[in-house]
UniProtKB/TrEMBL annotation:
This is Uncharacterized protein.
Length: 140
């Protein structure tokens, strides 16, 4: 008998432009045993007003995925850009993953979202917390 326990908390914050369909995102999540609500998307136009300081020392998110987003935003004083803020404060933030397109620019695609999810701290924590117990029974 195999007994599995897989309770975990956390969400993934996705910053920037998302052109993927809802069905595509749901499929990526389903393939990884997750529901779509594991993602919180902050659209490109809303990134400028997002309170980045609220991400410091938080456990609300396991990961931050960064796609194409504005250079400047609210509450990143002392940093020259959103990406620089995330780099400057990486030790006080959830794991940050930059979503890069084939040409190297920031952007969200089906492949890089799926790859980022597979290597996310969220899934890493889920696997660490999964307890497998194998019980052997002896039959005469």
């Amino acid at each position: 008998m195999v007994k599995m326990e897989s309770k975990f908390a956390g969400k993934i914050l996705v910053l920037g432009d998302c052109q993927l369909s809802d069905a595509c995102i749901q499929k990526i999540c389903k393939n990884n045993g997750l529901k779509k609500d594991v993602f919180k998307f902050i659209e490109y136009s809303r990134v400028k007003m997002f309170d980045f300081e609220s991400l410091l020392d938080t456990d609300r998110y396991s990961d931050i995925f960064v796609a194409a987003s504005p250079h400047k935003a609210k509450k990143i004083e002392g940093s020259t850009s959103v990406c620089q803020f995330l780099l400057d404060y990486q030790e006080r933030l959830p794991r940050v993953t930059q979503l890069r397109l084939t040409g190297g620019s920031l952007g969200l695609s089906k492949n890089n979202l799926e790859n980022a999810l597979i290597s996310s701290k969220l899934l890493e924590l889920r696997h660490e917390r999964t307890k497998v117990e194998i019980i052997f029974t002896h039959h005469n």
